[in-house]
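Entry 14. Two folds queued back to back today. First construct below, sequence then structure tokens.
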Amino acid sequence: MIPRYIVDFDLDALPVYETDVIVIGAGIAGLFAALEASRRNKRVLMITKKSLFDSNTRYAQGGIAAVISDEDSFEFHRQDTLIAGAGLCDPEAVDVLVHEGPQGVQDLIRYGTQFDEENGLLALTKEGAHSQRRILHANGDATGYEIVRALAEKVKTDSRIEVWEDHFALDLLTEDGECHGALVMKPGGARVAVRGLATVLCTGGTGQLYRYTTNPEVATGDGIAMAYRAGAVIRDMEFVQFHPTSLCYPGAPRFLISEAVRGEGAVLRNIRGERFMEKYHPQLELAPRDVVARAIVSEMEATKSTYVYIDITHESPERIKHRFPNIYEFCLNYGLDMTSDWIPVAPAAHYMMGGVRTDLNGETNIARLFACGEVSSTGVHGANRLASNSLSEAIVFGRRIAERIGSLTPLEGKLRTSCKTDRTAGPMGAVIERRLKLQKVMVRYVGLRRNGAGLQKGLEELKRQEPLFQTALTKREELEFANLLTCALLTAEAALSREESRGAHYREDFPERDDLRWQKHTILHRESGISEEVVGHV
């Protein structure tokens, strides 16, 4: 039911913009990949549907993981990543990440990122499931914002990079198994074809699939949906990470309370004031995120509450304000003082481990099409991303993508693709209602805890929306909803297929991990359907 193209178009009637590298999306992945391509003398066009500052990266609090300390080692980082990934990490991809991560940090510093220091050295903290202190941070708990600030300033002054803000990428344009560019909608609704020797998806994840998420409104799965329609392999969509601790307070948005708060000693309490993590995992509050999130839900159910508390009041007020200035100020705006109050929190959708499958150079099964950052599935994260590995992944693979693009040959011929179907012209109805309904289905049936009957019911409800794909979509919110529906269908189908519990995917009807049957990836392809792939094989 999902068509090759989401809109009808005739390239002969459209203007064509030519460049070397097309980067779709912003965030650390898009900004860094653009700068690295420019550094190799490529002309770059960045397309972002809002501004350079509207991305998940901007809201990343905790930091970026890399082996910096003499007490740490590549092997320690490797093992921590593999353990968190629950048997689905690609060991080669993890090796690339841990060995090239430190250089990536130096690249960020070269581009102007100012990480926090202590006694003249880079300050390091520890987060859940890390065995060592290896998390670099900036301005206490505003690491993502500082990285975006530095990279965006460089991008804006780079003569080889052009930025199109408020432009919406509709679809990828392919010819003979190659990606030749993208069809783009301009702010006023007019369309333009963009052609380049390489296209890099940096569009982020799918947080808006769920009613409660730490992601901004732009996280609507556009890149995954576009790639799927174009014939790219999509992998492991069942693995959605829910952050255990987002602010849950009347009148306040689901603001992220960083894992670093627990890394610095905060404890979790139920509404009776009792610590409870000892019942669930020997690492207590520093257990892997999926364990902590499910433990919180269990306590909420046992105490008939909609939240638990995170408590760091035993630390000095000065230390809390210095280490977490943004979280402290945000909570204070709603009458909550971290230095003296327990903060009410609950899990919220946070990160998509799956996405567009790539090789170790960030290239997809479609030649000249690359994916970087959360939209991609490089093999680093497996079934459960290790905290703060995502920013490292973006810079490591962003640089590799730029290097690979340097070896591509020029495009030949011209764009010939067009699409003409019999789409109905009627309105699709109120998008906000459809979106809320989709989010409720995902929370109820494809959330933190799943079972076969619920997944089947959720999939059936989602499929009732499929006639949408045969209608004429013109508004951005309609197109975003179509992309969300695509990602919802893929996520539910993958979750129904995997009959075991592993990492962020928990099946109540199959609560045990099954390595004999399921130490494999779930593969989704528009033409060949759903299949499996051995770990480490692309």
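Second construct, same run, same settings:
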Amino acid sequence: MKIVSPAQMLRLESAEMSAGATAEDLMNRAGAAMAARLVDRFGVGRRVAIFLGKGNNAGDGLVVARHLARFAWKVQLNFIRLERELSPLPTQKLAELLAELPLVSRTLCGNGGEFVLNPEFAIDAILGLGSSGPLSPEIARAVETINRRRHSGALQVIALDLPTGLPQLAAKNDFPVKNPDAAVIADLTLTVGYAKDFLADERWSQWVGNLDVIPLFKTVPEALAGDEVLVGGELAHLLPRRSALSHKTDYGRVVLFAGSPGFSGAAVIAARAALRAGAGMTYLVVSPAIRAEVAARIDPEVILPVAANKKTVNELIAKADAIAIGPGLGTSPAAAALLRDVLALSKVPVVIDADGLNLLAKNLKLLAKRKAPTILTPHPGEMERLLGKKFSLEQRGSVAAKFSAAHRVITILKGTRTVIAAPGHPVAFNTSGNPGLATGGSGDALTGIIAALIGQKLKAWDAARLGVWLHGHAADLALDNRGDCAGLLPSDLIDALPAALRTMRRQAEIWPENCIISP
């Protein structure tokens, strides 16, 4: 899904209306589709407080409210201004809502009734893309109220199209921001049509949270070029489907080189993730010093070679469909020699992570003779070691793209908006995931997932994009089950992978028709 500027987005809306759609059509489509996404993710019978401005973003919120109520959500409307000050189209949408729900809870913000339903969710439908200038005192107080309640309790905040106040922050381009209450802090932003450029920017991710894109347009008259965001519905067709007539070797021999004394857990996590992501056969090669320890912890389905000598390593490299190296590997001379052998001998895609990257940073010439695809998965510190210099948050996309072009590799630069770059492809920014991924072992799980997808015959570029999104999506499902980001473990997201695959296939079935829902 392409990233657009606010100006492009307004032109696309204008073109859609020139083709016959009305502003009301777009509002009905957007609101119904956003409600459908919320029900799909959070289920029925929830409690929500919806904060409404007076413009068309409020109209979206009122359409969302009407559809959520049909799925037994208890809705409370919190108006920033008096109801009679609503713009004409939101006024019409309020009337439609009241015709179905005449007793819906309604209150004026600032009168102390903002959270009378003790909601599980707050929806920000205050300001949309057309907002500019400083926030009015009433809106600023509403923003502070939402953020304060989110900070102090279990309330999840959902922004419709964009978090109120964020366009103003992005326009100033003044980072870091001294006042976090300058914009609504969302856990999930449901943006409409296309991802606006500032929503994919790492700098503003603490206000955007998880990002989901709601398709809107039936016609796209202008060619859209440039960067992209990863969207599950668009990626889902890449998921391999198993034939009834199949064998374990059809789904790949994945060989993982990982682990060292004190870091056996990284090897175990990577192997478990590969299994859950569908690898047909998973081989885990560890040093003899930790083999007994790993054998006691690893899933019985993982193949743990008895010896890790050069002959065994060469045989495994020769028969592998996908290779990953680095999690917990250490940086010993033996580990460095192993990396050299893997890169020199393997004719299949190789995923390099963690210590594999630290070793590679000392000798980037190892990449020069590679003919098969190579995927690097650095976090920012590892990326700086590969580059030999520091970079800023706003440089993440260009840094990954330039490094990929220079070394003919696929670079996955991890972060809130993980960047995926490769020669000949647009830079892609991930939209899934949550702060629960900020824990040791999450990257090891990603390595196993990507290797498993390559083993199932996906091209390296597709495996990288799908793997990154699937990894984050599994973490989102694990969060929904666990209830809080704190304490979310890599094992939780690995256990959620089968459900993540199932829900992703469902997105493929309804994409993009899910945006065209009758009012």
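Quick look at the second one. The first strand starts at residue 3 and ends at 4. The chain is about 40% helix and 15% strand.
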